Amino acid sequence: MSRNIIAILRGLTPEEALPVTDALLEAGITQIEVPLNSPDPFDSIARMVAYTTGHAQVGAGTVLDRADVQRLQEIGAKLVVSPDCNPDVIAATKAAGMLSFPGVFTPTEAFSALRAGADGLKFFPAFKLGIDGFAAVKAVLPTQTQTFAVGGVGPENFADWKAAGITGFGIGSNLYKPGRGIADIAARARDMVSAYDAVSV
After folding, report:
1. Which of 46, 107, 126, 149 is deepest in the core (most CB within 10 A)?
2. Tens of pLDDT along 128-177?
3. pTM exceeding the 0.85 threshold for the entire prediction
4. With bands split at pLDDT 50, 70 and 90, how would you rate the model's confidence at 119?
5. Residue 125 preceded by cis peptide, ω within 30
6. Structural domain of residue 168, as residue ranges?
């Protein structure tokens, strides 16, 4: 089963990259982003890309410019996630053959992202937009738009977001924080997957 869960590993170090990747893959999470404000993020991403070939989509978050997109292409990354809607970054990402998930909050940003070629929309911070706010924006989006709630989401509210029409989730500190042990991360990942599966049947 392919799950629309993106693990956001902000603060990950290269030394943690493969053990954390194993924990996520074993739980059933196959979309992974390392934000570029993490320590040596391109090193971590390169290791994870080489390790997961054919088994996961690995890429970066907090991608702000074309130069970062080019570096990600060179190391074989598959997805680019941004905190904002930057049509230039979206265009560069698509030209490089990667998936683009820009951050949006308003209908204007959402449609700007889609017109620029985004593969999906990251609604951030989701807890500030709220489920009612998302539902109002969702009503005017093209039916097949991939939408991800990021920020303040977790197993306890997956069902409510799914009922409002969200198609996926980006999970950060509820899953990974610097210093958290692998066993804890693995348990959290399993809980995320169980909750996601329960509302996705």
Report:
1. 149
2. 999 999 999 999 999 999 999 999 999 999 999 999 999 999 999 999 99
3. yes
4. very high
5. yes
6. 5-198
Instruction: Measure CA of the first residue to CA of the last residue in the chain; give whole Å.
Output: 11
Long-range residue pairs from 172-176, CB within 8 A, at least 24 positions apart, any chain? 172/8, 172/10, 173/10, 175/7, 175/8, 176/7, 176/8, 176/9, 176/10, 176/11, 176/12, 176/20
- The residue from 16, 33, 78, 138 that is catalytic is 33
Residue where the block lists tokens 């190391």:
75
Residue 138 among the catalytic residues: no
Task: Provide the domain count of the chain.
Answer: 1
Candidate list 16, 78, 122, 138, residue with the active-site label = 122
pLDDT at 54 over 90: no
Can 109 be counted among the known catalytic residues? no
Instruction: Round to whole Å and give the CA distance between 157 and 79.
Output: 25
34, 7 Cβ separation under 8 angstroms:
no
Look at the block and give the residue holding tokens 């999470």: 29
